[in-house]
Every structure is written in structure tokens, then in C-alpha cells.
Specification:
With about 475 residues, the chain is α/β, with parallel strands linked by helices. It contains 16 helices and 8 strands. The protein is globular and about 65 Å long. Bound molecules: guanosine-5'-triphosphate. This is Signal recognition particle receptor FtsY.
Length: about 475
């Protein structure tokens, strides 16, 4: 999918939302017209159906005669469903097409496929072979309703993801995004001063020095190449280049979580105190539990007073099990008990909360290595993920911590928390460029469902939607 597709998709959706009231009026009018037509049709249809029924009568047994008796009712149903279904079908097809347009372009044909199916059923209703017709109509109606319900679910999911990104990135949009917007609104020429100022802006937005330099170097070429002059052209080139560099920096990164092929999946969380580890585990446990997974938590941060209690509160809130140990006890012992329990009692996922002490790299390394050793002894390919939790509001500091953790253990991915609390969302680019670790989840707020899978397109849209204009 091209970069600007997401802008087009969102724009289309917004346009649709605006058009909806007008379309609803049209729909109502159609339904009213169809009712008038169907009243006329019912009179003529019932006459023709009666004569057809009489013709067929010799072959018809008791059952069909019941059907024939039920015919007026059936016809009423089919007439209703004719007018009703045509409108609901159109609505279904429409809602399906809304969703399709919003999601995968390659599935654009589906709504069109659905519409004819339903249309042909209403044609069946017009032919008026009573019993099968109503069955067909009922089936079609049911199918349409089911597909509409499924589509509605998808829309809700998609809309809620988009809404979460939209809300969660508001601060960055009004910070980083709006600054870039103002900068582009005021530039006169794309000259050296322009690039100097752009570099400063990018660095101040946490994109990182290295990335800011790379970006401005490549932009020099690209602006010339595309002969970009207007604000809109230059803005599009900048955003396109940012995404291009982001993609290139992480082309081998896998942003999905790695799950065990069989047995429990073990996910360890590391990161400094206050980065949001416990909260992230609580949110993630709720997420996986809602997907029907059996989740176990291990409170292996035995050093910070209150850490176990905090995780225990989440466990109770989520309705998941937890293994704890005594304060200041050996965290590896908690890990051992938890992994044993996870294996014996067939848990799907074990989340391990660890202490975030960073004052001594050697100690941290030893502690994490001991936990990993225990896990691997019990489950050979565990831990399946070691997620480093970073607080987006700490900017360059978060990057420095990340480098330290990366040297201490094999980190497999990042959870970037508190993105809602920073006005400088550029840190996502810096992480990609400097750490070469995939951001797997982002925290877009404090609520349980504010943890979202990282979606680069939604991220870019959330950050720059006020800057980009698409046809
Ligand atoms: N706004 C916002 N707040 C968050 C997010 N994630 C975590 N927090 C808050 O950050 C604070 C610290 O989170 P914790 O989960 O306690 O952090 P921790 O890394 O477990 O810290 P220790 O338990 O001290 O190791 C809490 O007040 C959380 O509610 C987020 O995505 N957005």
C-alpha cells in the first residue's frame, strides 16, 4: 500500500460520513417508493400466483398446499422483504462497500458480488414460487444480516484503532505535525536555510540527529527530482521520504509477536522503573484474555515495594492468574514457579514482569540472564519475546536506556508507552534508525484498551493528517 493510500482511505471515510445523512434521506425515499410499487405489485402478483398455484394444484401435496395457503402471508413477507430487503440489502452492500473501501483494495469486488446475489433473490421473489421463494429470501436476508454484522464488527475495530491513534497522537500532531505545517507555510525557497531549519525542527521532534541528517540529505535530492515548489508538494515529499527512510531502516523487522508453536508463549518485559511495564502487562493480558487465551502473570519485580501489588491489581481487574514471591526475594524463583505452573496447567501466555534497575549494567545482565536460563531450561525456545518498554516522553533518554538494555539482553521488540503524552512523536523514527528494533505495541493512553498494535500507516496519518491533502 502506498503512503498516501491511508490518507485517501481516511478522506473517503470522512466524506462518506458527511454524505451519510443525505444518503439516508434517499434510502428512506426509496423505501417509501418501493412500498408504493410493492402494493401495486402485490395485487397483480397475488392474482398471477393464484392462477399458477391452481395450475400446479394436481401435483401439489398437502405441504405445498399449506404453502399455497400461506402464500398471501409469504407474499407479504416477500413483498416486505422485497422492499425492505432491497433497502437493507442496499444498505448492507453499501456498508460492506464502505468497509471494503476503507480496508483492502484488492477485495473491492466483494460488495458488488454480494449485491447481485441479493438482487437475484429479489428476482426470485418476483417470480413468486411461494415456499422456496420465502426460504431463499429468508436465507439471503439472514446472510446479508450476518455479513453486515460481521462487517460492522470489522468497521468498529478499524474505526476504534483509527480513533485511538487519532486521539493518542493529538499532542504530537499539534506539536510535531503543526510545527512542520507552520514551517512549510512560511518558507520562501527550498535553499540551504530551509534545510538547516528543517533539521532543527526534526531534531527537536525527537527524530534523532542521525535520522534528521539522513532525511535532509535525501530531501535535497528528492525535492529537486520532483521539482517540488509549493507548500503541498514539499510537504508531501518530506512525509514520503520520512516513511521511506523508516521502511528502509527496518525492512527485516517483524512487528508481529512471536508465538510458541506449542505450549505456553513466554513474554518477558524489561525497562526502567516508571516506563510503563506493569501497565503494559495489565493491558496486554486483558487483550489476550479477550481473545480467549489463558493468561498467567509472573511478578518477578520483587525489588520495588508495591510492584507485586500493582501487578496483582491488574491480574484481578483482568481476571487472570498471577504468581508472586516475597518482597526482595529471588526474582528467578518467581519465574521458575510461574513457568512450571504455565506448563502444568496449560496456559497459553506467560507474561513476566521484571525489575528495571539500571544502576549497574553487570547486575542487570546477570539478573536477566538467570531468568532467561530458567525459562529456557523449562521451555527450550522461551522466552519467545523480550519486550523493552520505553517511555516516549523521555525522548533521547529512552534511546540511551534502550541501548543499555540491548547490550544486557536480547531484546526482540519495543513497546513505546505514553505516546499520548509527548508532543514530539518523532521518536518512532529514531528507534528504527538507531536501535533496529521493531516497535510492536504503542501506549496511547492509560486505559486498558489504549494499548494498540503498532501500525505505521495509522501512526503517520495520526501525526500528519493536517499536512497532507489528497484528491
Ligand atoms: N498516558 C499514559 N500513561 C501511561 C501509559 N502507560 C503507562 N502509563 C502510566 O505510567 C505510569 C507508570 O507505569 P507503570 O506501569 O507503573 O511503570 P513500570 O515500568 O511498571 O514501573 P515500575 O513498576 O516502577 O517498574 C502509570 O501511572 C501508568 O498509568 C500510556 O501509554 N499513556
Amino acid at each position: 500500500m502506498g503512503l498516501f493510500d491511508i490518507f485517501r482511505r481516511h478522506k473517503k471515510h470522512e466524506d462518506k460520513q458527511e454524505e451519510r445523512p443525505q444518503q439516508e434521506e434517499k434510502e428512506e425515499q426509496k423505501v417509501a417508493d418501493a412500498h408504493v410499487d410493492s402494493e401495486v405489485a402485490t395485487t397483480s402478483q397475488s392474482a398471477s400466483s393464484e392462477s399458477e398455484a391452481q395450475e400446479e394444484a394436481p401435483e401439489v401435496d398437502q405441504d405445498s398446499s399449506t404453502t399455497t395457503e400461506a402464500q398471501p402471508q409469504n407474499e407479504e413477507v416477500s413483498d416486505d422483504s422485497l422492499s425492505g430487503s432491497s433497502s437493507s440489502v442496499e444498505q448492507n452492500a453499501e456498508s460492506a462497500s464502505t468497509i471494503e473501501e476503507e480496508t483492502v483494495t484488492s477485495r473491492n469486488d466483494e460488495p458488488e458480488e454480494e449485491a447481485p446475489t441479493t438482487k437475484s433473490s429479489s428476482q426470485v421473489a418476483e417470480v413468486s414460487t411461494p415456499a422456496p421463494e420465502s426460504e431463499v429470501n429468508d436465507d439471503v436476508q439472514e446472510e446479508a444480516e450476518e455479513s453486515a454484522a460481521a462487517s460492522d464488527d470489522e468497521t468498529v475495530d478499524e474505526e476504534s484503532t483509527a480513533a485511538k491513534y487519532d486521539q493518542g497522537l493529538e499532542k504530537s500532531r499539534t506539536g510535531f505535525g503543526a510545527r512542520l505545517n507552520r514551517f512549510l507555510a512560511n518558507f520562501r525557497h527550498v535553499d540551504e536555510d530551509f534545510f538547516d531549519d528543517l533539521e532543527d525542527l526534526l531534531i527537536e521532534s525527537d527524530v534523532g540527529y542521525d535520522m534528521a541528517m539522513k532525511l535532509s540529505d535525501e530531501l535535497r535530492e528528492e525535492v529537486k527530482l520532483q521539482n517540488a515548489k509549493s507548500k503541498q508538494e514539499v510537504s508531501n515529499v518530506i512525509i514520503e521520504k520520512m516513511v521511506d527512510l523508516y521502511d528502509r531502516a527496518g525492512k527485516d523487522e517483524k512487528s508481529d509477536l512471536n508465538f510458541a508453536k506449542e505450549g505456553p508463549t513466554v513474554i518477558m518485559f524489561v525497562g526502567v522503573n516508571g516506563a510503563g511495564k506493569t501497565t503494559t502487562i495489565g493491558k496486554m493480558a486483558a487483550l489476550f484474555k479477550s481473545q480467549g487465551k489463558k493468561v498467567l502473570l509472573a511478578a518477578a519485580d520483587t525489588f520495588r515495594a508495591g510492584a507485586t501489588e500493582q501487578l496483582d491489581i491488574w491480574a484481578k481487574r483482568d481476571g487472570v492468574d498471577i504468581v508472586t514471591g516475597p518482597e526482595n526475594g529471588d526474582p528467578a524463583a518467581v519465574v521458575f514457579d510461574a513457568v512450571q505452573k504455565a506448563k502444568k496447567e496449560n496456559y497459553d501466555i506467560l507474561f513476566v514482569d521484571t525489575a528495571g534497575r539500571l544502576q549497574n549494567k553487570v547486575n542487570l545482565m546477570k539478573e536477566l540472564a538467570k531468568m532467561k536460563r530458567i525459562l529456557t531450561r523449562e521451555i527450550p525456545d522461551a522466552p519467545h519475546e523480550v519486550l523493552l518498554v520505553l517511555d516516549a516522553t523521555t525522548g533521547q533518554n529512552a534511546l540511551n536506556q534502550a541501548k543499555l538494555f540491548k547490550e544486557s539482553t536480547d531484546v526482540t521488540g519495543i513497546v513505546l508507552t505514553k505516546l499520548d503524552g509527548t508532543a514530539r512523536g518523532g521518536i518512532v523514527l529514531a528507534i528504527r534508525n538507531e536501535l533496529h528494533l521493531p516497535v510492536k505495541y504503542v501506549g496511547l493512553g492509560e486505559k486498558v484498551n489504549d494499548l494498540q498494535k503498532f501500525d505505521a500507516s495509522e501512526f503517520v496519518y495520526g501525526l500528519f493528517k493536517d499536512l497532507v491533502e489528497v484528491d
